[in-house]
């Protein structure tokens, strides 16, 4: 199996994350420009000896364009949430278990027309964000003593518990605050 860190895989990953082929000519900032900048940045992080000319050949750009993108990524783009979102998604996908890295999905998305691929990628990003939020909530709850106790209540008694224990407790606390 090809290495997760190869430039070919990285280019495919960047294309998948932004939903377009970043080697095309358009200059839309939040897809093509940021996608290329993330590709160059992550490529330099993973393969620091790679030349600017080599990186440019992957995206059909010259070395000066690569250098310009790298400087902007460092100085300007790093403050833009859209760029950071793309960068973080690429870095997290690289660190995933390769067995979960679905090349069939990438291939299917790359064969779609641009608007469909963009729509699928947006949905994929929303799903990714939701999964990440769920995991963060699980992490918060796993370290919560109250949650451990609440989990012991049988599901058929939860409403009764809320009505007879939680709500009266909250009302009591509110009354003592106002006094």
Structure explained in plain terms:
It is a single chain. The longest helix is centred in the last third of the chain and has 29 residues, at 114-142. Helix 2 (29-46) packs antiparallel against helix 3 (52-59). The chain is mainly alpha-helical and 179 residues long. It folds into two domains: 7-142, no CATH class; 145-178. It is built from nine helices and no strands. It is 72% helix and 0% strand.
In short:
The protein is mainly alpha-helical and 179 residues long.
List keywords for this structure.
179 residues, mainly alpha, elongated, disordered N terminus
Sequence-ordered SSE layout with sheet pairings:
Layout: H1 7-18, H2 29-46, H3 52-59, H4 63-75, H5 81-94, H6 103-110, H7 114-142, H8 145-150, H9 158-178
Helix pairs in contact: 1-2, 1-5, 2-3, 2-4, 2-5, 3-4
Q: Estimate percent helicity.
A: over 70%
Number of helices: 9
Averaged pLDDT, please?
Answer: 82
Topology as a string of helices (H) and strands (E): HHHHHHHHH
Straight-line distance between termini: 69 Å
The general outline is: elongated
Rounded Rg: 23 Å
Strand content: under 5%
Kindly state the number of beta strands: 0
Structural class: mainly alpha
Give the tally of structural domains: 2
Characterize the main sheet.
Answer: none
């Amino acid at each position: 199996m090809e290495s997760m860190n190869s430039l070919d895989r990285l280019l495919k990953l960047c294309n998948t994350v932004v939903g377009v082929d970043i080697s095309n000519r358009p200059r839309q900032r939040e897809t093509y420009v940021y996608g290329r900048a993330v590709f160059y940045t992550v490529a330099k992080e993973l393969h620091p000896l790679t030349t600017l000319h080599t990186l440019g050949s992957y995206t059909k750009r010259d070395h000066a364009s690569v250098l310009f993108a790298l400087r902007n990524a460092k100085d300007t783009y790093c403050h833009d949430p859209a760029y950071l979102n793309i960068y973080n998604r690429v870095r997290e996908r690289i660190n995933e278990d390769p067995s979960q890295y679905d090349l069939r999905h990438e291939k299917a998305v790359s064969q779609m027309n641009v608007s469909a691929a963009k729509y699928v990628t947006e949905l994929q990003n929303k799903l990714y964000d939701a999964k990440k939020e769920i995991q963060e909530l699980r992490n918060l709850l796993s370290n919560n003593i109250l949650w451990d106790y609440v989990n012991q209540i049988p599901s058929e008694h939860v409403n009764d518990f809320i009505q007879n224990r939680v709500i009266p407790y909250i009302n009591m606390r509110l009354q003592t605050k106002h006094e």
